[in-house]
Each structure stands twice: as structure tokens, then as C-alpha cells.
Amino acid sequence: EAQVTQNPRYLITVTGKKLTVTCSQNMNHEYMSWYRQDPGLGLRQIYYSMNVEVTDKGDVPEGYKVSRKEKRNFPLILESPSPNQTSLYFCASSPFGGGYNEQFFGPGTRLTVL
Amino acid sequence: GQNIDQPTEMTATEGAIVQINCTYQTSGFNGLFWYQQHAGEAPTFLSYNVLDGLEEKGRFSSFLSRSKGYSYLLLKELQMKDSASYLCAVRDILTGGGNKLTFGTGTQLKVEL
Questions:
Q1: pLDDT tens across A64-111, in order?
Q2: Of the candidates A58, A50, A67, which has an alpha carbon nearest to the alpha carbon of residue B101?
Q3: Distance from CA of B47 to the nearest CA of A (A)
Q4: CB-neighbour burial class of residue A107 (10 A; exposed 0-12, middle 13-18, buried 19+)
Q5: By CB neighbour count within 10 A (0-12 exposed, 13-18 middle, 19+ buried), where does A111 fall?
Q6: Largest Cα–Cα separation, chain A
Q7: Which residues of chain B does A44 touch, with a Cβ-Cβ cutoff of 8 Å?
Q8: How far apart, in whole angstroms, are the C-alpha atoms of residue B56 and residue B25?
Q9: Closest CA to B53 of B43, B68, B39, B38
Q10: Is the pLDDT of residue B9 over 80?
Q11: Residue A88: its chain B contacts at CB < 8 A?
């Protein structure tokens, strides 16, 4: 089954404790992206990657890192989480290029930073 | 940058028709998407428009006017399960490697009996 998976789905942590949220897709998509979703603000892009070893900042990259060592994986790293990073996070992937290339979303990771 | 506006909430009756509007401003328009999102779940793709006109897909249709920076999503024969948030998203060829989607804040639709 074609899908995007994320782990963990739920996480409660404390300020400053490094964490990684994994994202994996099995559709051989070039483009991958991380979003955070907050009430009243909608989905905002954190980082994106156009292919292996190619990553760039989105609209709200502060406090986050990513890597793209393999095509299927795109982990999101919070080196020193803070309470303002409490949010619902989504990973998404799509074929690169325009046209009818919808982004497929993972199930989401609900993160709480105390 | 991009700016996308859509109503925050709408209420409609089961069996009726509802139209959700979206206006946008973007420099390098390269397609408009509508997604459906149930509370706490992932957005799921509904429709895509890149040329002016109406795209029909079962009970859902989406319209685009590029000159007006305007789109709407039309839902017919509403069902209770259509209660969800509907997200308008615009792809801009000039940013984010050409694949970036900028989302509106979503329209929360409530379908009542």
C-alpha cells in the first residue's frame, strides 16, 4: 500500500530534550516536506527536500533540522525543543514537478513540549 | 509571498449543496488544490485546478478563475461524514523548489440534520 508513515504518533517531552520524528514514504517520491499545524494558523511548511541530500528552509524553520540521506526517509530533528514547538506535525511527499502531483500526507505526530 | 483567504466556518444541512470560497494572491501560480481534513487526521486530496473552469469529481466540484485569484469547492448532496475542515492550497512555481504548497487556514464545515 502506497503510504507515508510517521513515528511516533504522539509524544510528550520536556524542554531541551532532543528528539527525532521519523518520516518514510514507499512511493519513490523525490519531494518531501514537513509542516506544522496550529489552530488559526493552518499548515505551515518547516523544511522541504527536492531529492537526496537537497534540503531547504520553509516558512518556519527555526528550531528544527532535517536530513535526507535516503530517498524514502526525511526525519525531523528538534535539537532543543521548547514549548512553542508544541504542535501537530505532518510529513508529506510528492513526485517532483508540476501537474497533477498531489502531496500525500502522513498520519501526523502530536507533540507536546512541557 | 502568498496570501490565501477562506471563511473560517460554515454550516449546512444534510442533502443540501454548499460552496466554500477561496481567494489567493501569488506571484508564480502553478495550481490550486483542495484537501479535506477530519479532526486530528491527515489532509486528504480532493481536487486540483490549474486552468480556468470547473473540475467535477462525483459529489465534489472545484472551480478556478486565475484572473480573479478565486476558487470554490462545491459539495453536493451533503452527508454527515462531510463535516470536516476544507483546506485551499496554492502551489507557487517560484518558491520551495516549485513544489511548495501554501495553505489557507481552512474552512470548518458542519453538516446538520
A1: 999 999 999 999 999 999 999 999 999 999 987 666 678 899 999 999
A2: A58
A3: 9
A4: middle
A5: buried
A6: 42
A7: 103
A8: 24
A9: B68
A10: yes
A11: 40
